[in-house]
Amino acid sequence: xxxxxxxxxxxxxxxxxxxxxxxxxxxxxxxxxxxxxxxxxxxxxxxxxxxxxxxxxxxxxxxxxxxxxxxxxxxxxxxxxxxxxxxxxxxxxxxxxxxxxxxxxxxxxxxxxxxxxxxxxxxxxxxxxxxxxxxxxxxxxxxxxxxxxxxxxxxxxxxxxxxxxxxxxxxxxxxxxxxxxxxxxx
Length: 186
Ligand SMILES: [Zn+2]
Ligand SMILES: [Zn+2]
Prior knowledge:
The chain has 7 helices and 8 strands. The chain is an alpha/beta fold. The protein has a single domain, classed as Collagenase (Catalytic Domain) (3-Layer(aba) Sandwich), CATH 3.40.390.10. A 5-stranded mixed beta sheet has the order 2-1-5-8-7, with helices on both faces. Strands 3-4-6 form a 3-stranded mixed beta sheet. It starts with a helix and ends with a helix. The structure holds zinc ion (ZN) (2 copies). One zinc ion binds next to helix 5. One zinc ion (ZN) binds next to helix 7.
């Protein structure tokens, strides 16, 4: 399938990721390596002057994803790259009290929060390997929505919904073959 894709369109699609409000070059490097190995995309980091505090909601003590998505949308200037913001703070939107991430279906923008993926939040014990595994799953999940995928019932698939970290840990780390076949990267 990748071969056919490359024959048709030699120019790779691009995903630009902004680490908002924190910096971790090793995290980005590992994420980029994993994604470029598994998907026909190039993954680059982008920086902006956006102040994440602009999305802070005093009452909720959380950050509002519509503001962050609007920032990504404004940054995009109608060009065709995919953009994802990764944050390390707690996020919410009008529908959900908290979120692991949010993305436009068949769109270009997405947001992922690492905040609730930290094991120390639940057991008091940090686990950086587990954090990275969970982060990867949430990144593939949200990016999958950009690529046209909806939720999948297969627990081995990363497009399965998760309402807890236990569910994130149980589900698979990548798209099932059925979802993979439906991916539309452009
Ligand atoms: Zn989803
Ligand atoms: Zn699936």
